[in-house]
Amino acid sequence: MWGVVAGLLSVAGAVPYLWDVWRGRTVPHRGAWLVWTVLGCTALAAQVSAGAGWAAAFLWVQAFGMLCTLGLAVTRGIGGARPAELAALGLAAAGVVGWQATASPLCATACVCLADAMGFALMLPKAWRDPWSETSSTYLLAALSGACPLLAAGDGGPELLLYPVWFVVANALVTAVLALRRSALGAVRPGARHASGDDRNCPACATRRQLASAPWSAAVLGAVD
After folding, report:
1. pLDDT digits (tens, 9 = 90+) for 121-152
2. Contact at 8 Å (CB) between 78 and 31?
3. pTM (2 decimals)?
4. Among 114, 140, 170, 193, which one is least packed by beta carbons within 10 Å?
């Protein structure tokens, strides 16, 4: 039951995110979604090979949504090639390798959390600078969907509880950052404010300039406010 609920919450979170990316309102970070997609697909493959049933519904929906988002991020996203970003991707890759290589369930789960954390580390600076470049409801619903495995696990050991706890905390943190930054910067998207033409301090325009520096993103500039 909790697997189905988590899957429904994942759908509810993925649809508005994909729609916002398609419309140009949300600008995903390529590196972050690459990390999350690899993790999601690897976790799904592991669950399917282990004979998981309805409990894997959450992972099926999550993996499909991540693949779609990553596909859109190639042309409508930013980031992924700077030295610091490449270093974070390397740490994420090390986490995935450690997850597959270790025989300890707890160590494997810790490696997954490390890899997942690198995705958030890649995305958070952009979210801080331009909180309108992310869909906040997606992260809120992700936190709620992550709570479902906690309810299903009950009194399970740390190897069962560590990742769901991390998933809830990480997504709740992103939700809080987006809400606080939007409140601090103002309720109106910055692109609608600077009629004077001075956009030097506009975080949305900073994201737009990053898009302009990537030739593959030039086609969507007209949709990014």
Report:
1. 989 988 898 898 899 999 998 888 877 766 66
2. no
3. 0.75
4. 193
